[in-house]
Every structure is written in C-alpha cells, then in structure tokens.
From TrEMBL:
Annotated ranges, domain GST N-terminal: 1-95
Gene Ontology biological process terms in this record: glutathione metabolic process
Species: Polarella glacialis (Dinoflagellate)
Gene Ontology molecular-function annotations: glutathione transferase activity
Pfam families (UniProt xref): GST_N
Name of the protein: GST N-terminal domain-containing protein
C-alpha cells in the first residue's frame, strides 16, 4: 500500500519517519512544502505559500491543520508520534512482541521529552513557569 508523507522541506519532526522508511528500504511519496523567510533568521517572517494554500483547501484537516500528515490507503493520519508508530509497524520495525513494542514506544516518548527540554534550554523565556510570566 503506497504511503505519502507531507511536511515542510526541513528535517524537523517528520525526519524519524523518513528514517524509518529509509532503514526499511520502503518507497514512499515525500511531499515537502518550501519555507522561506523574508528576513533571514526572523521566524515571524516565514512564508509558506504552498502549505497555506493546501491548508486552506482542507488538505490537513485530519491533523487539525498541521503537518506532518501521512496518507495511506486514502486515510490521513496526523501527529508525528502516531505516524512513527504506524510506519514502524507497517515496515516491520516495531519489535517482534508486545514488550519490544512497548520499549520502542517508550523510546519514542523519550525523544519528545528530550526535544522539549532542549527547546527550553535554548530559550530562557520557555523555562519560565506560567506563574512567572
């Protein structure tokens, strides 16, 4: 069954899914929406015309207007970790029993924690609790 992964033309949160496809040597359609900044380094000036047009058409409604989104057999799946788990199962990389599956799932959750903590360390404002803001 053909699969189509849609995300921006960056590694970001879709990269683990791309790596799963590569590790399993499984072909898929890799849709990458371009991003540009009108002022380099200023993320408030990001331009993503192609993505915005598809979003306006409802292309990402299954994922609440966000990407990544995976399409498989006409069904759209959102949320990066759900996509990773689904693809890992489809390509045979989700363990050989329930314990291994749970351990792999645990590692996926750890990556979310690590990514969150890394972001907090990069941005002092993000370290502040809601009571300090």
């Amino acid at each position: 069954m053909a699969m189509k992964l849609s995300y921006f033309d960056i590694r970001g949160i879709a990269e683990p899914t791309r790596l799963l496809f590569a590790a399993a040597k499984v072909d898929y359609e890799d849709i990458r929406y371009p991003l540009a900044m009108t002022t380099p380094g200023d993320f408030s000036t990001v331009v993503r015309a192609e993505f915005d047009a598809k979003k306006a058409e409802g292309e990402f409604d299954a994922a609440m207007g966000k990407v990544p989104i995976l399409e498989c057999g006409g069904v759209k799946i959102g949320q990066s970790k759900a996509i990773e788990r689904f693809v890992a199962k489809k390509v045979g990389l989700m363990g050989s029993n329930e314990i291994e599956e749970a351990q792999i799932d645990m590692l996926c959750c750890h990556t979310v924690d690590i990514r969150t903590r890394t972001r907090q360390q990069r941005r002092p404002q993000a370290r502040m609790t809601w009571t300090q803001r």
